[in-house]
Design goal:
Layout (H helix, E strand, L loop, with lengths): L4 H23 L2 E5 L16 E2 L14 E2 L11 E3 L12 E9 L7 E6 L7 E7 L4 E6 L5 E5 L9 E9 L4 E6 L2 E2 L3 E2 L13 E3 L1 E2 L2 E2 L2 E9 L5 H6 L4 H23 L1
Helix pairs in contact: 1-3
């Protein structure tokens, strides 16, 4: 029985196109993007580049390489610093922050730092991993208000996990998505002012607690991502398998055409 590679390709190519085009839905609002390919470069425009500390390394990450920080925070040598003037500024609008993280050990402190624009005081935002393996945030506005929020535990298994936090100021809610799955909304109506950071952004720390793990593909958006947009950032194994099958089928079909 001869394999009909034309039919096989016709089935797979729509999925191939769908896989490639979905991330573009969210990329229209992508403001800053840190891939951590041996550097702290903002690959989305290049206007928010970070200075890499001497103790930061770039081992294998989720998508290619990732940033690994010291197990204890001792200063700028252990983190990536983005100048305040260039750091992502959500202002009073909606925004989202997403990243991949591999948590490698349980910290004896309260939080492992993902990023910090507050240093404990001021205006801005902080993201971290709590000692029980959940993601968390703190946001402070310029009206003197602040809000803390956290997700259910997910880290601690040594695997990479995708975290997305969406802040919908219009509807006064924040939502954690872990590996593409949304949790219950968190009320953020207490926040009434601007969240424009007034300090440098420090990647790899939170209140002077370092991140014991690897951070990859840190992204900042100027709107609240939808559930579908978040899902587009988390490829499923079945999608990757379908993509591979499509490429194999297309190559085989081309070889048959050449032999004729």
């Amino acid at each position: 029985m001869k394999t009909n590679w034309i039919a096989a390709t016709a089935i797979v190519l729509p999925a191939l196109y769908w896989t490639a085009s979905l991330p573009g839905v969210a990329s229209a609002a992508l403001i800053d993007h840190y891939k951590f390919e041996n550097n702290g470069v903002d690959s989305e425009g290049g206007d928010a580049n970070g200075t890499v500390g001497a103790n930061v390394t770039f081992p294998t990450g989720k998508l290619d390489k990732g940033a690994q920080f010291g197990t204890t925070f001792s200063g700028a040598a252990d983190i990536i610093v983005v100048p305040n003037a260039d750091a992502f500024d959500p202002g009073s609008g909606d925004f989202s922050i997403t990243y991949w993280v591999q948590w490698l050990s349980i910290d004896t402190g309260s939080v492992d730092g993902v990023l910090d624009t507050l240093d404990g005081v001021g205006v801005g935002y902080q993201l971290g991993i709590t000692k029980d393996g959940g993601a968390n945030f703190r946001v402070d506005d310029n009206a003197g208000n602040f809000k803390n929020g956290g997700s259910a535990p997910f880290a601690g298994d040594g695997l990479f996990h995708h975290v997305a936090i969406t802040f919908d100021r219009t509807n006064d809610q924040a939502i954690f998505y872990i590996d593409g799955v949304g949790e219950l909304p968190i009320d953020i109506s207490v926040l009434t002012g601007s969240i424009t950071p007034n300090q440098n952004m420090q990647i790899g720390t939170f209140n002077f607690e370092g991140l014991e793990g690897i951070l990859d593909d840190l992204q900042f958006y100027n709107h609240a991502l939808t559930a579908g947009e978040v899902s587009a950032l988390v490829p499923e194994p079945s999608t990757a398998l379908l993509l591979s099958a499509g490429l194999v089928g297309l190559a085989a079909f081309r070889r048959r055409r050449v032999r004729r």
